Amino acid sequence: MSAAPQLIGSSGDSLREAFGKSLVDLAERYPDFVVLDGDVAGGTGTHHFRKHYPRRFYQCGIAEQNMVSLAAGMATVDLPVFVTTFAVFSLRAVEQVRLSVAYARRNVKIVASHPGLDVGPDGASAQCLEDLAMYRAIPGMTVISPADPLEVAAATEAMLKYDGPVYMRSGRSPAQRIFEHKPNFTIGKAQVLREGSDVTLVACGKMVAQSLEAAAHLAEKGISAEVVNAATLKPFDHATLETSVTKTGAVVSAEDHNIFGGLGGAVAESLALHRPAPLEMVGVRDTFGESGEPDELNHKYGLTPAAVAAAAKRVIARKA
């Protein structure tokens, strides 16, 4: 089959569409990898890959445990494998991920769409607010949550080059563009997107855009906020956070996830071990979501630029 067209970068792409298109863009340069799907290719963006490379696409049906076990088996013969499904469905296969993938250190990449409140009208049963915490807790797993379509493309290629198990979130809603060009993406390295001196805003996924908007609002009030894109939650970039916090003395974490165990947990652990400082967490506060449009849910559960800015003001007031 001839090379597929370059697809990444369309205006209004969701992270899931960006992921599916990036697989097509990478397929010629990386001819060995295959994609396994749990009967949701239309929802994960992998329908693009299925169209262009049907012989490298395996439909596993609604059998996530079997799909992960199959992926682990394929990886034993040095075949890089992507496993794709919705985030909440991936939790069905955590035992297989733990033993067949992570314990065995197989080169399997799990990419899950529909995380957090971004799922919207599908409601609490489909809004996965626990995935980052669960995958962070599995020994040997790398955990990634990119911020925009171009970073998804860069992260997907970085995953292909990395030998070992990885979990990456994508997303359902159209994503705000943060990067003008495809960024350099290094697993385990955070990126300072905006420099500041009064407070550090550490975010991942869709909350990076919200944090940048919050920083602009704070600047109008005379508050200088540094924004750090922590796209890799594990291994966490302690050095970048420590450098930022040494300058600002206060931190806000922001994520579309339960405040326990995800990015907030990673930041709290890092501060406790390397550079203690006051911390405020922006995220879902240990509750399930409900049905509603993503913007409505963001406002109800406090995942907005205004909520990030308010947390910044609170944490600045707590400085010693």
TrEMBL record:
Cofactor annotation: thiamine diphosphate
Source species of the chain: Acanthopleuribacter pedis
InterPro entries: PDH/Transketolase, THDP-binding, Transketo_C/PFOR_II, Transketolase-like_Pyr-bd, Transketolase_C
Coiled coil: none
Domain Transketolase-like pyrimidine-binding: residue ranges: 13-178
Highest taxon listed in the record's lineage: Bacteria
Keywords attached to this entry: Thiamine pyrophosphate
Family membership: Belongs to the transketolase family.
PANTHER family membership: PYRUVATE DEHYDROGENASE E1 COMPONENT (PTHR43825), TRANSKETOLASE-LIKE PYRIMIDINE-BINDING DOMAIN-CONTAINING PROTEIN (PTHR43825:SF1)
Protein name: Transketolase family protein
